[in-house]
Design goal:
Structural class: alpha+beta
Radius of gyration: 27 Å
Largest sheet: 8 strands, mixed
Mean pLDDT: 92
Number of strands: 26
Length: 489
């Protein structure tokens, strides 16, 4: 790796000023960065990096996002197959990700582009800071590091299966050629899989093949491999691959039983190490504050399997303006927004928009949404003490729901749409002042009940009718005494 030391130091100094982290945290971050090998710096999982540097996941994400802002890093989005671990698709922009999904070549499956499960955000050192000498085509280990996610961890049985079914690997240089020798029993088959070309070739040994065809020719282009199928006689066969493009290619030789491969991946699901999903990054206030929409294309939309949505509102806000006067009421309401923003940011969420005296926020984890909701109430309680002399008492109500959503670009803002958002908004309309109303989906989520119990919140289970929502909705109305010393979060 060739580092521009002067430029690196300048970017790290800018990072220290931009990031909201203590100096010792930035120092640990910089030290870990300098200790990385080239291949590690080409594509970084910020959560794993933070753990190795001894800093929190939230601090690591803040530093990487801030690092993109000052030109220390580049941000890319990866399509991830959580079955086999293939990470063969990379996108420079969020709106390049296809909403309908992408095709996993290894599993021969269509993978949905779910932002919270199948899209990973990763960072690489900016080329203006260092020239990274990492060639993913130099050998099989490098190819695997680049195209197969270390975050997808297979069990012992699956690893043994992969060891039995992998027959070899070849690097085909740009405008060059490579050879493979394969052995085929009668009725057997192999497939040549190229992650970088998103393509494969099936070679089958069977009746009807020309006995004399002992050497096979395959063409590699920027768009794939041809021919896609070949029928040959059993025995030893030499495969010659001709690369007609200006970039190298890699080919992995696997057994040809695609159904067996897919069954092995699906029946023994891999464990997942923590990684920064697209939804996790987009549901952070830091990312939104620094980058916003960044000229996303019109009509952009992506699916999220599960997002936690929070709505807030001030009870009797119109009366507040009439009784306290516009100037006083406006100042108090602004301070109320500051308290809500601080609560959302402190618990890893993002403000989506404000509407009058209301706020809509999004979170990746329901437990974080619950913590933020409790802290919102605690923040407003503290504000009420500070403004007691004005005669104003703010009475906040909060509604929380989780479920599928659609992320869209509306008026140069990333917004959330769908029935989950509708239910959260309708729930707010039936929520009493000083109450946090959560749906059963939120209440039953991991860690949520412990969050409310720690904050001194007590819930009452009810069934309510929400406008535009069929049937009755089960909710939990969480209340806490106004003078409870708990923090609410």
């Amino acid at each position: 790796m060739l580092i521009d030391d002067v430029r690196l130091e300048r970017k790290l100094a800018a990072l220290a000023l931009t990031a909201r982290q203590p100096a010792e945290v930035v120092a640990r971050f910089a030290a870990r960065l300098r200790s990385c090998e080239d291949w590690q710096l080409s594509s970084i999982n910020p959560l794993a990096f933070g753990e190795e540097a001894g800093i929190s996941a939230r601090a690591a994400v803040d530093l990487f996002v801030s690092g993109v802002h000052v030109g220390l890093f580049e941000l890319r989005w990866y399509g991830l197959c959580v079955f086999c671990g293939a990470r063969e698709y990379v996108y420079d922009r969020l709106d390049e990700i296809p909403r309908e999904g992408f095709h996993c070549t290894c599993c021969a499956l269509e993978i949905s582009s779910l932002l919270d499960e199948r899209i990973e955000a990763r960072f690489g050192l900016h080329p203006g800071v260092a020239h990274i000498r990492f060639d993913p085509f130099v050998d099989f280990a490098s190819y695997s590091r680049h195209f197969v996610a270390a975050e997808v961890v297979h069990g012992e049985e699956t690893r043994a299966y992969l060891g039995r079914t992998q027959r070899g690997w070849a690097r085909i240089p740009a405008q060059g050629a490579a050879e493979l020798v394969i052995e085929l029993e009668p009725g057997a088959s192999v497939r040549l899989v190229s992650f970088d070309r998103h393509a494969q070739v099936f070679i089958r040994a069977g009746v009807g093949a020309r006995e004399a065809e002992t050497e096979l020719e395959i063409d590699v282009t920027d768009n794939g491999l041809t021919p896609q199928e070949m029928l040959v006689a059993p025995g030893s066969r030499r495969v010659r691959l001709h690369n007609h493009s200006a970039r190298p290619a890699g080919v992995l030789v696997l057994d040809g039983d695609v159904d067996g491969f897919r069954h092995a991946m699906e029946s023994h699901r891999a464990a997942l190490r923590p990684y920064l999903s697209g939804q996790m990054l987009l549901a952070t206030q830091r990312f939104r504050a620094l980058f916003g929409v960044q000229r996303l294309r019109e009509g952009f939309a992506l699916n999220i399997r599960r997002s936690a949505i929070v709505f807030t509102d001030l009870a009797r806000s119109t009366v507040l303006y009439a009784e306290a006067g516009d100037a006083t009421a406006y100042g108090v309401v602004r301070r109320h927004f500051q308290a809500l923003y601080a609560a959302v940011d402190a618990h890893g969420g993002a403000i989506v928009k404000t509407m009058g005296d209301s706020v809509m926020a999004a979170f990746h984890a329901p437990a974080d949404a619950a913590r933020a909701a409790g802290e919102m109430r605690a923040g407003i309680d503290r504000l009420n003490v500070e403004i007691a002399a004005t005669g104003i008492e703010l009475r906040l109500k909060v509604a929380v729901h989780a479920g599928p959503a659609i992320l869209v670009n509306v008026d140069e803002r990333l917004d959330y749409f769908g029935q989950t958002v509708n239910i959260a908004a309708r729930l707010l309309a039936v929520t009493a002042p000083l109450t946090i109303s959560v749906t059963e989906e939120i209440h039953a989520s991991a860690g949520v009940q412990a969050v409310f119990a720690a904050g001194g919140w007590v819930g009452v289970r009810e069934q309510v009718a929400l406008r535009g929502v069929p049937g009755l909705v089960t909710i939990h109305c969480m209340t806490r005494a106004p003078d409870d010393p708990g923090s609410g979060g």
